[in-house]
Amino acid sequence: MGRLAGKVAYVLGAAGRGNMGQVIARRFAEEGATVAVGGRHAEELEWLAGEIEGMAVTCDITKMADIKSSIQAILDAHGKIDVAVNATGLGLLTQFEETSEEDLNMMMDLQFKGPYQWMQVLVGVMSDPASIIQISSATATILVGNHHAYIGTKAGIDHVVRGVADEYGAKGIRVNSISPGLTASPMAAPHLETPGLLDAFLKNYPLGRLNTSEDIAAAAVFLGSDECYMTGQNLQVNGGLTLRRNPLPSEIEASVMAAMAAQQAE
Asked: What domains appear along the chain, each with residue ranges and CATH number?
C-alpha cells in the first residue's frame, strides 16, 4: 500500500510537459493517491489525468474564480481534498531597474496573491488531517542575481505559509513549503546546455549535483503523508545549496565565456 493510499490530492501547476508539477502528480499516483491535476492548458491536463487515472481541472491561479471552481470540481467528484500542492511559478529574469510595473504585477499575482487566495479557499474545505504544500525556491533564502521580483514573491509567500500553519494547525491542516535550487529538468535543459553554465552552479552544491523534480516529489510525498508531524516549515531540498550560495551574474558570465573560448580553441 502506498504512502498516500486513500488520499485525494490536488496538484496545481501540472500543465507543462515534464514539469515539476507533473512529476509530483505521477509520484502521488504511484503512492496510491487519487490525483487531480490543475493548470491553464486543458489538453495537456487531460492527457496527464488519463495517464495517472486522475482528473483534470483548469485553473489560472491568478483568478479567484478559477481557484474556487477547480476546488469545487474536485470536491464534487471526490468529496474531499487531503493534499494540495502549488507548483506554479515563473522565473522572471530581468535587472532590478528594468523590471516593469507590468512584470512586477504579473509576478505578484502569480507568486503571491494567487497562492495566498488558493490557501484561503483550501483552509475552508480541508479537514483533519490535511496538508498544503507550496513549492518555493532556495533563492528566497540565498538570493540570485536579476531575479528580484521572483525571490521577493517566493520569500513573501513562505512567510504566509508560516502564518497559515500557525492559525490552522488546530484544524489539523499542515502547511509547509519546499525549496529547490536550480533543477535538472526538461524546462531547464536548454539553459543548462549553455557551455560553462552548469559548472558555475555545481561548485556550490555540497552533494555534487543539481536537484531533480523527483527529489522534490519525494519530499512532497513525506509532507503529504500521515507520517509527517511538521508544519510551518520550509524544506531546503537542494543538496545543501543554502550552505553556500548561487553564483553571481559576473561569475556565470565568466564561466560561460571561458567554456566557449575553450571550445573555440579545440
From this structure: 8-187+208-243 (3.40.50.720)
